[in-house]
Specification:
The structure holds four protein chains of four kinds.
Chain A: H1 2-18, H2 21-34, H3 39-63, H4 67-110, H5 114-131, H6 134-145, H7 150-157, H8 162-170, H9 180-194, H10 197-209, H11 217-245, H12 256-302, H13 316-334, H14 339-364, H15 368-371, H16 378-404
Helix pairs in contact in A: 1-6, 1-11, 2-9, 2-11, 2-12, 2-14, 3-9, 3-10, 3-11, 3-14, 4-5, 4-10, 4-12, 4-13, 4-14, 5-12, 5-13, 6-12, 7-11, 7-12, 9-14, 9-16, 10-12, 11-12, 12-13, 14-16
Chain C: H1 3-6, E1 10-12, E2 18-29, E3 40-48, H2 67-76, E4 81-84, E5 88-92, E6 95-98
Parallel strand pairs in C: 1-6
Antiparallel strand pairs in C: 1-2, 2-3, 3-4, 5-6
Chain D: H1 8-15, H2 18-25, H3 31-57, H4 63-85, H5 92-119, H6 128-153
Helix pairs in contact in D: 1-2, 3-4, 3-5, 3-6, 4-5, 5-6
Classes of the chains: A mainly alpha, B alpha+beta, C mainly beta, D mainly alpha.
Chain lengths: 409, 129, 116, 154
C-alpha cells in the first residue's frame, strides 16, 4: 500500500512538475497560431525527456553521481565549463521567467502590478529552499500543479470540432498565413520547452537528495514513463484550448491573461480559479527546481558540498550561489522586461544547450565501471542514439531560425 | 614491477579515471574535484636513466589549477592547493579520502562562506523542516 | 611535474619521428604500501597517432555501445598504443622522446569493473 | 510593469541588439510588414478585450483577471500605434494606410479604456462593447486593404 502510494505520488508530482511557464506559454502561443499542427513535437519532446530522465535517474541511483558531475568528468574542464556557462545562463533565464510567471499569475488573481509581486515571489522561493525539506517541496508544488488538468477539462467543455482538431494534429504544417521557418522555429521552441535540461539536473540530483538506490529504479521508471507523458497530454490540452478559442479570433498569445481566457470561457470562475492556482503552483514549483538546479550545476562542476539534505551551513557555497541567482533574477525583472518574452528565449536556448548535457549521460549509461550490469540495453541505446541526432539537429537549427524568423514575430 | 603485461595491482588511466572526478572525504562530503595531479620523479629536459624508479602520484591539485588548465598558464608554486595522495583511501567513480575534509586547505572557501555568510542567516545552522 | 603538462605532448621516437600525441598516463596502485592505499606509480603512456582529444574511455575497455559515439571514437583513435614507462627516454615541455627499440603494446585496460 | 512592457517586436529589439540585425534580415523593417504586424497585434488585443468583457458581462471571470487582460490589451495597442507612427512611408497609399491604421488603433484604445474605467466603477461595461466592435471592424477592413495592396504590389 505504502509503495503504491509512493508510486502514485511520484507520478502525480511528475505530471505537475512537467508543466512550467515555458510549456504554458509556448503551448498557448503555438496553439493560438498553429492550432494542433505542432502537437507531434510535444510527443517527440516527451519521449525525449523520458529517455533522458530515465538514463540520468538510473545513473544517479546506481552510481550515486549526479548529472553535472558526470558532464565534467567525461567532457573535461573546458567543454564542461562551456557547458556550465550555457546551462547556468539558461537556468538563470528560466529562474527569471518562472519568478516572473509567479508574479503574473498573482496579478491575474489580484490585478496588482506584477512588479510589486516580484520581491514577494522571490522571497517565497528563497525561504522554501532555505527551510523546507526536499520531499515536501517537491510533493506540494507537484500536487497543486496538478490542478492544471483543468485545461484538459476545459477543452472537453468547449466541445470543439474534434475532427478538425485531429486534422490539424495529423496533417502537420503551417497554416496559410504563417511561414515555414516560423513553423520550425516554434517546433524547436516547443521541443526545448519539453526537454529543458534543468528538469534533468533536478531529477538526477533529486535522486541523490532522496538517497535512491537500485531498488528505487522501478519507482523512478514509473514516475517518468507515466508522469511525463501525462504532462505532455496537459501541454497539448493547453495548446488545444488556445486553438479552439483564440485561433478563430486571430489572437496571437502575448500575455498570460490570454492563456487563461479559454478556461474561463469553458468553465467560468471555478475553472478559472483552478487554472490560476495551477499556474501559480507550476511556476512556483519550477522556480524552486530551476533555482536548485543552478546550485546543483555549479556545486557539481566545482566539487562543492551540496544538497538540501545537508543543513545550509554545511553546503554554504551551494546556498550562496542560489541566493545570488534569485537576486539576479529579481534585478532582471526589475528592468520591466516581459517575463513571457524571457520565457520564449529560455526555451529556445534550452534546445541549443541540450546536446552537451545529453551526450555525457548517454556515454556513462554505457560505462560498466559506473553502472555494473545496469548499463543501457540495445533498445535503449538505439532510441538514445536517435535522440542524440534529433537533439543535435534542433540545436544547430535553433539560432539560424531565431534570426531568420525574428524570434517568431 | 612495472611491466604492463603483468600488472601487480589495480591498473587505471590518470586522465580517464582520476582527473575531474569528485573528491569525497571520509564521511562522503564533497571536498573538491581533481583539477590536476602532481607527479613526482619526472625531471623535464633530463634523460631518464633506464633503471630509475618510476614516477609516482604525489598529490591532487585544486584551486587555481582549474583556471590554468582551462585558460593555460601556470599558477605560482605557492598558489597550488594540494591534497597529498597518501590521504586517498579509495579510487572508484569518486576519489575517497581517509580523513575529514573540513580541515583541508581545499575547503577554506566553503568554511569562509559558511562562517561569514550562511551561518549568520537565521536558520542557517538548522536542518530543513 | 603536473599531469596536464604531459597530456597532449607530442610523442617522438629516438630519431625524432612523430608518433602521435600523449593522451593519457597509465597508473598502477602497486607501489610501497601506505597507510590507506598503496603508492600509485606511472607504468606507461598512451599514444594516439591521429587525435589529441580525449577518448571518453572507449578505446581502452573494448567498449562499443552506443555505436553512434563508439564508432567515431574508435576511428579517431585508431592505432592507439601503450608505451611502457621503461621505454621513455626523456620528457621535455610538450615533447616525449622514446628509447630505441620501444615496443607498441595493447592499450586495452583489463576490466576493472567496480561500480562505486 | 504593464506600461513599461512593450509589444512583441519592440520588446525583442530592447532585449537583444542582435535582434535589430534579426529584424533587418527578416525584412520586418519595410512599411508593409510593420503595418501587417501592427494590424495583427491590434486585432489580437481588441479581440482579447472583447472576450474578456463578454466573460465579465456573463460573470464567468474574476474582475482582477479582466482588469489584467484589459491592461495587457491596451499595452499591445499602444505599442502597435507607436511602431506605426514611427514608420516612414514612400507612397500615397501607404501614408493613407498609416493614418487609417492609427485611427483604428486609437478606437481600440478608447474601447479598452472605457472597459477599464467601467471596471473601476466609472460608466457601464456595456458601453465598451460597441466601441470595441467598431475598432474590430475597422481593423478587419484594414486587414483586407493591406492584403489587396500586397496583391497589387506583386
Amino acid at each position: 500500500m505504502r509503495r503504491i502510494f509512493a508510486v502514485a505520488l511520484g507520478i502525480l508530482t511528475a505530471i505537475g512538475g512537467f508543466v512550467d511557464i515555458g510549456d504554458l506559454v509556448t503551448n498557448a502561443i503555438v496553439g493560438s497560431r498553429f492550432g494542433l499542427g505542432l502537437a507531434w513535437v510535444v510527443l517527440v519532446g516527451v519521449v525525449g525527456i523520458c529517455v533522458y530522465a530515465q538514463m540520468s535517474g538510473r545513473v544517479a541511483a546506481v552510481s550515486g553521481r549526479a548529472t553535472f558531475e558526470i558532464i565534467r568528468e567525461r567532457l573535461g574542464p573546458r567543454a564542461g565549463l562551456a557547458n556550465l556557462g550555457a546551462s547556468f545562463l539558461i537556468n538563470l533565464l528560466t529562474v527569471t521567467a518562472e519568478i516572473g510567471g509567479v508574479a503574473l499569475s498573482l496579478q491575474l488573481a489580484t490585478s496588482v502590478d506584477p512588479l510589486l509581486w516580484v520581491p514577494v515571489a522571490a522571497f517565497g522561493v528563497w525561504i522554501v529552499i532555505w527551510r523546507a525539506r526536499f520531499k515536501l517541496l517537491e510533493n506540494v508544488t507537484g500536487l497543486l500543479g496538478l490542478t492544471l488538468i483543468v485545461f484538459a477539462v476545459a477543452l472537453f467543455m468547449l466541445s470543439p470540432d474534434w475532427g478538425s482538431l485531429a486534422g490539424q494534429a495529423l496533417q502537420p504544417g503551417p497554416p496559410a498565413d504563417e511561414q515555414m521557418s516560423t513553423y520550425w522555429f516554434y517546433a524547436i521552441a516547443l521541443f526545448g520547452a519539453a526537454m529543458t535540461p534543468y528538469e534533468v539536473f533536478f531529477f538526477s540530483s533529486g535522486a541523490i537528495e532522496e538517497k535512491w538506490t537500485e531498488k528505487d529504479l522501478a519507482t523512478s521508471r514509473a514516475n517518468v514513463l507515466v508522469g511525463f507523458p501525462l504532462g505532455g497530454v496537459l501541454s497539448i490540452a493547453i495548446a488545444g484550448c488556445a486553438a479552439v478559442v483564440l485561433l478563430p479570433a486571430s489572437i496571437d498569445v502575448t500575455s498570460l491573461s490570454q492563456v487563461v481566457l479559454p478556461v474561463a470561457e469553458a468553465g467560468g470562475k471555478l475553472a478559472l480559479s483552478f487554472a490560476i492556482v495551477g499556474i501559480l503552483a507550476a511556476t512556483f514549483g519550477a522556480a524552486l527546481e530551476t533555482t536548485l538546479s543552478s546550485g546543483y550545476t555549479l556545486a557539481q562542476y566545482f566539487g562543492w558540498s551540496w544538497g538540501k539534505f545537508r543543513r545550509p551551513a554545511k553546503a554554504a557555497r551551494f546556498h550562496l550561489a542560489m541566493i545570488i541567482c534569485i537576486f539576479v533574477a529579481m534585478a532582471i525583472l526589475a528592468t520591466g522586461v516581459d517575463p513571457i518574452l524571457v520565457t520564449e528565449y529560455s526555451v529556445v536556448f534550452s534546445a541549443v544547450a541540450l546536446p552537451l548535457t545529453y551526450l555525457p549521460i548517454l556515454i556513462i549509461a554505457n560505462d560498466r565501471e559506473y553502472m555494473g550490469d545496469k548499463v543501457n540495453g540495445r533498445a535503449m541505446n538505439l532510441i538514445g542514439s536517435v535522440y542524440l541526432v534529433v537533439i543535435l539537429v534542433a540545436a544547430i537549427a535553433a539560432i539560424p531560425l531565431l534570426i531568420v524568423t525574428g524570434a517568431g514575430s | 614491477m612495472n611491466d604492463p603485461h603483468r600488472p601487480a595491482g589495480r591498473v587505471l588511466d590518470a586522465h580517464l579515471h582520476i582527473l575531474d572526478r569528485q573528491v569525497l572525504d571520509r564521511d562522503g562530503v564533497p571536498v573538491t574535484t581533481v583539477d590536476d595531479l602532481e607527479l613526482d620523479g619526472i625531471e623535464p629536459g633530463a634523460p631518464i636513466e633506464p633503471d630509475a624508479p618510476p614516477p609516482t602520484v604525489a598529490a591532487i591539485l585544486t584551486g587555481p589549477d582549474l583556471a590554468t588548465r582551462i585558460f593555460g598558464g601556470r599558477p605560482p608554486e605557492s598558489r597550488h592547493i594540494r591534497i597529498p595522495w597518501k590521504l586517498v583511501s579509495e579510487v572508484g567513480t569518486t576519489i575517497r579520502l581517509g580523513i575529514t575534509g573540513y580541515i583541508l586547505d581545499a575547503t577554506w572557501t566553503e568554511r569562509w562562506v559558511s562562517e561569514h555568510i550562511i551561518a549568520r542567516i537565521p536558520g542557517g545552522r538548522h536542518d530543513p523542516e | 611535474m603536473i599531469l596536464s603538462d604531459l597530456l597532449g605532448s607530442e610523442v617522438v621516437d629516438a630519431a625524432g619521428h612523430h608518433l602521435g600525441a600523449l593522451i593519457d598516463v597509465r597508473l598502477e596502485i602497486s607501489g610501497a604500501p601506505h597507510q590507506l592505499l598503496a603508492e600509485t606509480v606511472v607504468v606507461g603512456i598512451l599514444v594516439s597517432p591521429h587525435s589529441r582529444t580525449s577518448t571518453w574511455g572507449f578505446e581502452r575497455r573494448g567498449a562499443n555501445a552506443p555505436a553512434i559515439i563508439a564508432r567515431p571514437q574508435h576511428w579517431l583513435h585508431r592505432g592507439m598504443f601503450l608505451i611502457a614507462w621503461t621505454d621513455v627516454a626523456q620528457i621535455d615541455e610538450g615533447r616525449v622522446t622514446l628509447r630505441d627499440g620501444y615496443e607498441r603494446r595493447d592499450p586495452v585496460l583489463a576490466s576493472t569493473a567496480h561500480p562505486h | 510593469m504593464p506600461e513599461s512592457r512593450r509589444g512583441r517586436s519592440k520588446r525583442a529589439q530592447a532585449l537583444a541588439p542582435l535582434l535589430a540585425l534579426t529584424i533587418v534580415l527578416s525584412g520586418c523593417s519595410s512599411p508593409a510588414s510593420t503595418f501587417d504586424q501592427a494590424i495583427g497585434q491590434g486585432v489580437a488585443a481588441v479581440e482579447t478585450a472583447r472576450i474578456a468583457v463578454d466573460q465579465q458581462l456573463d460573470d464567468r471571470i474574476f474582475p482582477t483577471t479582466t482588469i489584467t487582460a484589459l491592461g495587457d490589451a491596451r499595452r499591445e495597442l499602444v505599442d502597435a500605434s507607436t511602431s506605426v507612427s514611427e514608420t516612414d512611408t514612400s507612397t500615397e497609399s501607404d501614408a493613407a494606410l498609416r493614418t487609417d491604421l492609427l485611427e483604428a488603433l486609437a478606437l481600440g484604445v478608447t474601447g479598452v479604456n472605457r472597459a477599464r474605467d467601467a471596471m473601476g466603477g466609472t460608466g457601464s461595461l456595456e458601453d465598451a462593447v460597441p466601441a470595441l466592435e467598431r475598432a474590430s471592424d475597422a481593423l478587419e477592413a484594414l486587414e483586407e486593404r493591406a492584403t489587396e495592396a500586397e496583391g497589387a504590389r506583386r
